[in-house]
Amino acid sequence: MPAIEETLLPGVGVRHEFTTAAGERLALLTHRTGRRELAVYDRNDPDTCRTVLHLDADDTKTLGELLGLSQVSETIRETQRLEGVAIDWVTVPDGSHFATSTIGEGEFRTRTGASIVAIVRGDTTIPAPGPDVRFQSGDVAVAIGTPSGLELLRTLLAS
Amino acid sequence: MIVAAAGSDAAAAFIEVGAVALVLAALARLAGHFGFTAIPLYLVAGLAVGEGGLFPLDVSHDFIQLVAEIGVLLLLLTLGLEYSASELQHGLRSGWLGGVVDAVANFSPGFAVGLALGWTAAAAVLLGGVSWVSSSGIISKVLSDLDRLGNRETPSILNLLVIEDLAMAVFLPVASALVIGRAVGATAVTIAVALAAVSLIMVLALRFGDRLSAILNTGGDEALLLAVFGLTLVVGGLAQKVEVSAAIGAFLVGLALSGPVQQRAGALVAPLRDLFAAVFFVFFSFQIDPATLLDALAPAALLSVIAAGTKIATGSFVARQAGVGSSGRRRAGTTLVARGEFSIVIASLGAPLSNGTDLGAVAAGFVLITAVAGPLLTRAADRLPLPATE
Fold this sequence. Notes:
Chain A is of the alpha+beta class. Helix content of chain A is 28%, strand content 35%.
């Protein structure tokens, strides 16, 4: 992480600065009122700001969340980029053969090669379900496997 | 009979005061539209309704004066509320040299012009104060409007403003003592007493400020507003009793409040301050005869040019100390040119002096010029070509 420099601005608030990997100088000004300003310094005159974004408390929250969220989705994309491995959400439809059987009874891994890593049931999630977890209709199975294996799993669960 | 008379007086006063307030509202909107401070416009409005003006008011002088003085206290209270104790200490430590340069370079022009006009030493000292202090109100607004708060030169500017405000805690009592105008020995005693009182209040404010803030913070907004208002008037009044200026008492009350209560009080008092301070500025020029102002225009213009130059030099000096490049130095210098509320507060102290009206007129002209020219200059500073010498 780059070094962060802190400067007190009497009567206004505090300013934090750092240089990005690409060499841009960034500053975040936090006003006492909670308002923030995000500033990018000018390359020709490093004492002045080229762009200043004014953010109120809500904007700051939104921006913070976006920066945090994009990290999460990036991690997911990384997993998906593994050669030949895919992740998919498969619903167990009403009247499925497996709507009342356990994961073990379904022998899904043996039949499709895909592993069920979680089950989403309404508002709750069952992470890493064991072989004795019983499906209910409407469950969403989160599975990892080859694309063809996941396709097989989808047809199997729908049968 | 008496009630009826008072009633009709009150009706006339309501109409007059209300009409003036509406005019001020229009002026404040106009100033907001063009992005500059309304203070110069308030001064002009005061001239129009004042003695010898176009529409002289006949509202009780005492009433307006009391409101105006409360306006000064609230101005200084909110100034004190701007800063926390740690910011003051930091500002003093990092900017004392700039503060000394600022004091010498910008007090001298006013003092010299005062003496050249043949005024008494006390009046010249006050004019020195008028030309010394930049307007923190105008400057912080300009910095934020021009998106310069992130700039490298900005901490130097803000630190200088902190030091000027602190220096006023010493200057105002000294100036008040000079205005009373006793013999040299008696004046020295008055000044010593005043400075001792200021130090005492400041120590109390810094030591017990946290406890006071914690007690005040537990109440609701209404209770807090009344408590802060009451405390300001009581401390200001007590300070005035020992011949320290009341304004400094109010400033120290602002300094004493810290933490969450500092922000709450700031937000609560701000509208009240705007109202009372507007009356103060109007009342200040209300007492100036427009004819006197015309006579004062030449010295005021001369002082504006000199004092703008010295402020620009001071600003470049403090910015250079912070390692800022030439265009940043120019921005810092031009930003500091604006004088405003504090200069008027200092000039109003001189009202009892024999040169009091002249002092008021020169100060009003000086503030009118610099408050308008300062923001314009600094806006233009970015577009000026770089000076060849740097």
